[in-house]
Amino acid sequence: MRSLSGEKPLSKGQQTRERIIAEAAAIFNQRGYEGCSIQAIMEATGLEKGGIYRHFESKEELAAEAFDYAWTVAITKRRYNLDAIPNHADRLKQHIANFVTRTGLPGGCPLLNTAVDSDNGNPVLRDRVRKALRNWKNMLSQILEEGVKAGTIQSDIDASAAANRIVGGLEGAMLISRIEHNDQALRQALKDLDTYVDSGLRSPHS
Fold first, then answer.
1. Angstrom distance (rounded) from CA 204 to CA 86
2. Structure confidence by residue, pLDDT tens digits, 44-66
3. 83 phi and psi, to 5 degrees?
4. pTM of the model
5. What is the rounded distance in angstroms from the CA atom of residue 205 to the CA atom of residue 53?
């Protein structure tokens, strides 16, 4: 097994550590920090408690690493095929469609789940969520700014405000869909944000 960077093969201990993180990520994402017991992780990995804590100093450390893993899975799916699309407005629309249609780990968006879960007293997780959100918004802002330079995005747009609108629309729809147990809100967000990109962001010359 090779590392995520494709460099030298991982040691047996590193392989075990990554397997624990991957298994724990799905459980944390579905059950939250308090709802995810070490017993559940033991059952998922087939390891004893000592075998887990040999690799992590605490449940909090494991939860933070699991969130990073879950977020990497999610953002990779959301970035799918973007670089192959030359028009930046169409890249944004593909990103929005990826959010709605390309599911990540069980339980939905790890950003939304962990933000709610860590709001009351888990500063380590809260900091990881804040960093993930900032990176996501920066990615969208970069697409917009590159589009302005390329002439595919309107020159007078506020990239930060546009990124907030896209993220807020998607995450808000995800929350409604989870509460109502259907994808109607997400489908509506896809439609509304597509209209916003075409009418409010796309350059009329592209």
1. 16
2. 999 999 999 999 999 999 999 99
3. -65, -20
4. 0.86
5. 58
